[in-house]
């Protein structure tokens, strides 16, 4: 039986919840397209987050790994295209660490592309009337740190993986006037669709998904 590892983060930057974990935890032990989904929470800490993910991959040997993070202020479900080899933290992580201009892997390449069918995923989510878009940057905080580490490992050992950012939940957005949000069950549905597409589509669609800025 195939296993899919879905990882998401603990709350950070003073939030009481993290939208990514609230959604991903609802998919734990689900069967999607014949694959058993295992959810794992990651600490929002440089280094430790990647170690927890690597330990889970060692244990589960998953067919597919999708990490989900919370993108404060983004209005869409955003599927990440690329991870870059840099930690440059605007704020401290949950352990108080704040690396500046540090490479994630000393001798690693500048960037890796995600191996998910990112445009097919975006198209499928949009067809369900859920806002979605390709993202050209996972930032330079812990989310990008984990995505780069995941793709670096898979470049050496094989496997497919990527990263999806989700908006605030409404109960978070009320503390940030003007911030976009998305209901929890809508996020869960979008992630279910993303998993189904990632498990069944091998070659991505050639669709517009770029950015002018």
UniProtKB/TrEMBL annotation:
InterPro entries: Peptidase_C15, Peptidase_C15-like, Peptidase_C15-like_sf, PGP-I_bact-type, PGPEP1_Cys_AS. GO terms for molecular function: pyroglutamyl-peptidase activity. This is Pyrrolidone-carboxylate peptidase. Its EC number is 3.4.19.3. Homotetramer. It holds the Pfam family Peptidase_C15. The active site is at residues 80, 143, 165. Removes 5-oxoproline from various penultimate amino acid residues except L-proline. The keyword Cell division does not apply. It comes from Erwinia aeris. The keyword Iron-sulfur does not apply. Keywords: Cytoplasm, Hydrolase, Protease, Thiol protease. CDD domains: Peptidase_C15.
């Amino acid at each position: 039986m195939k296993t899919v590892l879905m990882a998401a983060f603990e709350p950070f930057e003073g939030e009481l919840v993290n939208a990514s974990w609230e959604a991903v935890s609802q998919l734990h032990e689900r069967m999607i397209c014949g694959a058993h989904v295992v959810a794992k929470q990651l600490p929002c800490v440089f280094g430790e987050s990647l170690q927890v993910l690597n330990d889970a991959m060692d244990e589960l040997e998953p067919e597919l790994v999708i990490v989900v993070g919370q993108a404060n202020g983004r209005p869409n479900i955003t599927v990440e295209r690329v991870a870059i080899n840099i930690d440059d933290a605007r704020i401290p992580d949950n352990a108080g660490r704040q690396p500046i201009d540090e490479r994630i892997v000393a001798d690693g390449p500048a960037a890796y592309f995600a191996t998910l069918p990112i445009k097919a995923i975006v198209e499928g989510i949009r067809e369900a009337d859920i806002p979605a878009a390709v993202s050209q940057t996972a930032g330079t905080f812990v989310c990008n740190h984990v995505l780069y580490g995941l793709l670096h490992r898979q470049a050496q050992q094989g496997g497919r993986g990527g990263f999806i950012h989700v908006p605030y939940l409404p109960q978070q957005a009320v503390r940030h006037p003007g911030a976009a949000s998305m209901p929890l069950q809508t996020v869960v549905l979008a992630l279910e669709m993303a998993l189904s597409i990632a498990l069944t589509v091998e070659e991505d669609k050639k669709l517009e998904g770029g950015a002018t800025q």
